[in-house]
From TrEMBL:
The gene is argH. The keyword Aminoacyl-tRNA synthetase does not apply. This is Argininosuccinate lyase. NCBIfam families: argH. Pathway: Amino-acid biosynthesis; L-arginine biosynthesis; L-arginine from L-ornithine and carbamoyl phosphate: step 3/3. It is found in: Cytoplasm. One of its GO terms (biological process) is L-arginine biosynthetic process via ornithine. It comes from Candidatus Lachnoclostridium stercorigallinarum. InterPro entries: Arg_succ_lyase_C, Argininosuccinate_lyase, Fumarase/histidase_N, Fumarate_lyase_CS, Fumarate_lyase_fam, Fumarate_lyase_N, L-Aspartase-like.
Length: 465
């Protein structure tokens, strides 16, 4: 493998060092970004009169042909032939157009070149992941529309707590995902600066036009300090932080679906196409997709940790440690994308079992708070009402009753304030409908939440088109 930097050295690089140092097996993924950046750089060099017009045109034409051949799978990018994607493209270009290809690297370094490639890649992937999150949010909203009045238990400490609706539960995740979208957009805005022109660390003596190159590549501006431009990867860390939070949300929902699929809950059933079986137990229908998403969240958290530890002790400017950023970012992006791609159709085809949800809500004394509120509204201090309601629950457990079925005489034995209208107060659907406070589970209030989220999705879709 010929070295572009071989002039300083009198001995060949050790074979193991070559293998250890080469990154083309990883950074070959950046071939398109590297070529796009190189074409913009060549156009700028030509515009500024730094290279002859003929060389500029030949460089761009040669790079277009290399891109075409790479996408057709005609070029093998192996460590035996190339050190990294930057050297690969330059060597291929020089082989095709001759000495003009050697002018491409004028006024730039691999340090600002790779910084540019990574920003182009991160920008592209943020847009794609955002699209997938919005797609899943649409699926979530469609499911919620059908279950505005599907009563289910709401939980704290995994204990049945108060009655809500399935739509209300889904809107909680819808709002989490909404914040995930905004985090991704904030990351995109923060990294929208072009580092090309920073050189190795101290810019260049050539009369370059960085703003021109930034405009060619669709950046809103350029990095303001050459040291910073080549030596930080905070946008990579920020992306992985955003993806880690997103995976927390997907993992939590996956955990709930795993519970809901069990015979102990049986609130939902996954479609056969998104379930697996057992090699020995014929009755099994396993939620493996959810379990894998729950497990893969740890990979993304690890990718973030890799970047944080890699960067925390590096002096300015570029250090070879930073070569390790790519595998972490690539892995986090790939993991999140496949999780979202499989989650949307799995969730869309999931069957909800409303009767089972309602039965579980009835068995959990979820209306105990409403019983206490009933007394409070009749003038009983809340702490007294709380104790009375708790006493009634204990009696129900002892007698095998529920608050719905407990005789009025028993109610009145505990507290004479109770009247027949207590049964309206403890009816589960009535309990849900009365929770009209902003953000609550009343159907009309959840419908408002749903419309707000749908409006958010419409605005994002319009902005993308």
């Amino acid at each position: 493998m010929a070295k572009m930097w071989a002039g300083r050295f009198k001995k060949e690089t050790d074979r193991l060092v070559n293998e250890f140092n080469a990154s083309v097996s990883v950074d070959s993924r950046l071939y398109r970004e590297d070529i796009e950046g190189s074409m913009a750089h060549a156009a700028m060099l030509e515009k500024q009169g730094i290279i002859p017009p003929e060389d500029g045109k030949n460089i761009r034409a040669g790079l277009r042909e290399i891109l075409k051949d790479m996408e057709a799978g005609k070029i093998s990018l192996t460590p035996e032939l190339y050190e990294d994607i930057h050297m690969a493209n330059e060597q291929l270009l020089t082989e095709r157009i001759g000495d003009g290809g050697k002018r491409l690297h004028t006024a730039r370094s691999r340090n600002d070149q790779v910084a540019l490639d990574m920003r182009l890649y991160v920008r592209k992937e943020i847009l794609e992941i955002r699209r997938l999150v919005l797609e899943f949010m649409e699926v979530l909203c469609e499911k919620a529309k059908d279950h505005l009045e599907t009563v289910m238990p709401g939980y704290t400490h995994l204990q049945r707590a108060q009655p809500i609706t399935f739509a209300h539960h889904l809107m909680a995740y819808g709002n989490m995902l909404k914040r995930d979208v905004r985090r991704l957009e904030d990351c995109l805005e923060g990294m929208d600066e072009m580092p090309l022109g920073c050189g190795a660390l101290a810019g260049t003596t050539y009369p370059i036009d960085r703003e021109f190159a930034a405009e060619e590549l669709g950046f809103s501006g350029v990095t303001d300090n050459s040291l910073d431009g080549v030596s930080d990867r905070d946008y990579c860390m920020e992306l992985c932080a955003c993806l880690s939070i997103l995976m927390v949300h997907l993992s939590r929902l996956s955990e709930e679906i795993i519970l809901w699929c069990s015979w102990e809950f049986k609130f939902v059933e996954l479609d056969d196409a998104f379930s697996t079986g057992s090699s020995i137990m014929p009755q099994k229908k396993n939620p493996d997709v959810c379990e894998l998403i729950r497990g893969k969240s740890g990979r993304v958290f690890g990718d973030l940790q890799t970047l944080l530890v890699m960067m925390k002790g590096l002096p300015l400017a570029y250090n070879k440690d930073m070569q390790e950023d790519k595998e972490a970012v690539f892995d986090a992006v790939d993991t999140v994308k496949i999780c979202l791609q499989v989650f949307s159709p799995m969730f869309a085809t999931m069957t909800v079992l409303p009767e089972n949800m309602k039965a579980a809500a009835k068995r959990g004394f979820l209306n105990a708070t409403d019983c206490a509120d009933y007394l409070t509204k009749k003038g009983v201090p809340f702490r007294d009402a709380y104790k009375i309601s708790g006493t009634l629950v204990a009696m129900c457990i002892e007698k095998g009753e529920t608050l719905d079925s407990l005789p009025l005489e028993t109610y009145r034995e505990v507290c004479p304030v109770f009247e027949k209208d207590v049964y309206e107060a403890v009816d589960l659907m009535a309990c849900v409908r009365e929770r009209k406070s902003l953000g609550g589970p009343a159907p009309e209030e959840v419908a408002r939440q749903l419309e707000k989220l749908l409006k958010f999705l419409r605005e994002k879709k319009e902005a993308q088109s």
